[in-house]
Amino acid sequence: MSNSPIQARRLQALTENINHVNENSAYTNLTQEQINSYYQNGFVILRNAFTPEEVKNMYDPIIKAYEEHDYEASPAYDRPKHIGYGPRITGAQPDKYLYPKPGNFPMSSRMMDRDPTIVPRSCEHPLVVNSCETLLNDRAILSQYQIYCRTPGANGTGKASEETQGFGSHYDYKPWRPVGSFLNWMFAIIPLVDYSKEVGPLLLSPGSHLKSRILDTHDDRIHLVETGCLPEASAINLVDGELKAGDLCLMNGFTWHEAWPNRSNITRIGLYLKFHGEHSPPATGPLIHPKTALKHANRYSHIFANNFRDDNKFSAIVDFHDGGCAPSNVIDRVSIVLENANDQKILCVKGKHLLPEIDANETRQYTNRQRNALQYLDAGNVIDTILMHLVEEIEVEMPYVSWICDEKKKDAFGNIILNRIYAYRITTEEEHVINENLSKDNSKYEWIDTNDLTNEYVKKVSYMWINSVNEKNEKVLRSAGFSHPKHNKMLATTYNGPGNPIDKYVCGIRLGVNKGIQPPPIKMKRQGKSKL
């Protein structure tokens, strides 16, 4: 069984641009048939991958956390239509909407902080890591540790159901999210109960991942994605994965899928782990994991990369002082490597050779309504903060950026803080506007040739950006990361949800100075419950 030409080109692009290092990887015994099935269909299911005892050892601490209401402060979604969507309210209010009321109650990597013994049982399990590294053809990095808890009465994704199959179909290339902005990535899904028709099956669309493709770099720095656009719901081919407790579903990140409602009397719980190749970094920057997760990490601690803080703060959705919710404060500062169009010069603070930098202030990017709707999967995107800072300083709003690395450094008080560093190569038109601002007497910035940079760290991250390498000096494939406040509204459930009149949409085509990107296709008129 041969791979499709599109998949072959994708694998060739990854091979040519990545120095794959595998000396610490122990490959799984996936058969060639299973590997081919993954590449052809976009998923492969390993039946009975975990013993009943292993399933119980994951299920018990998770259900205990839900019973103690130790999960995300974000509002449960996929609620029945008659139930409103306020944030989860804690404190003395008796009407707070909590588990086990009908809905989908997500829990994040806080589970690893609460009970680190679950790490080797789940995300660091040899079968999980080795299978992902085989299929990614790269060292696997844990992006998200997500638990979905769909209680009895919860809706399916996008109101999908047996009667409205296809209405909730989607895929997770969402480059405004830390967990959706990669080029080489996949799910490892572990159902902890049987996903029967009543409990709510996971449906998958064979071969749909091949409808999206990675484009050649247009600026010698990043790769855009030509996304496959979902047609009307009735035209989407879906099959029931028939997942049972203890199975392991390995699914490509570009594969279309949907979940049906829980019409049973038991809670549908599953682990939805997401991994990306080490050499395909998240364009918006990674989620931050609890450092306590390392306590029980054994052979494969590399899956956490350096995505943690010494003070054990980690990405989560927590209660906010106004009674709503907000991302936990894990990103302290944000800065940008802004490269000019042709000369490999970097915008620096005048006379200091430092990058433009500002307090991250993640929550201030959002209106109250936007903030209260955020999920764990959104946490850590501080792109809008640095973009708005640049608008004030140089009057140009970059359409997107790409994450370089996170710098851990000391602040004025000796505290270790995390500085998230993005980068962007401007167009000649953008450079003209910027240069007009730099010519003003009160300008704070100047262009510095990379050969003349005196700050060693600025020199290092500029080199990483210009040469498309990581901190190990290994080649990487970078992509476009977008501001969440602007592009979640603009792009969510467009190309990656049903009802598109066209087959392809390139996400990230620039329209001109301060004009953003080409908008997604306008959906065909849909009826009733087909709306995501």
Q: In words, what does this structure look like?
A:
It is a single chain. Helices cover 20% and strands 19% of the residues. The chain folds into two domains: 33-209 and 235-314, Jelly Rolls, CATH 2.60.120.620; 317-467, Nucleoside Triphosphate Pyrophosphohydrolase (Alpha-Beta Complex), CATH 3.90.79.10. It starts with a helix and ends in a 25-residue tail after the last strand. It is globular. The chain has eleven helices and 19 strands. A hairpin with a 5-residue loop joins β16 (402-410) and β17 (416-425). With 532 residues, the chain is α+β, with helices and mostly antiparallel strands.
Q: State the major sheet.
A: 5 strands, antiparallel
Estimate the mean pLDDT confidence: 92
Q: How many distinct folded domains?
A: 2
CATH architecture level-2 label of the largest domain = Sandwich
CATH superfamily of the largest domain: q2cbj1_9rhob like domain
Terminal-residue CA separation? 35 Å
Query: What integer value in Å does the Rg equal?
Result: 23 Å
User: SSE order in H/E notation?
Assistant: HHEHHHHEEEEEEEEEEEEEEHHEEHEHHE
CATH class membership of the largest domain: Mainly Beta
* Class by alpha and beta content: alpha+beta
User: CATH topology of the largest domain, anyone?
Assistant: Jelly Rolls
Number of strands: 19
Overall, the morphology is globular
Report strand order across the widest sheet.
Answer: 1-8-3-10-2
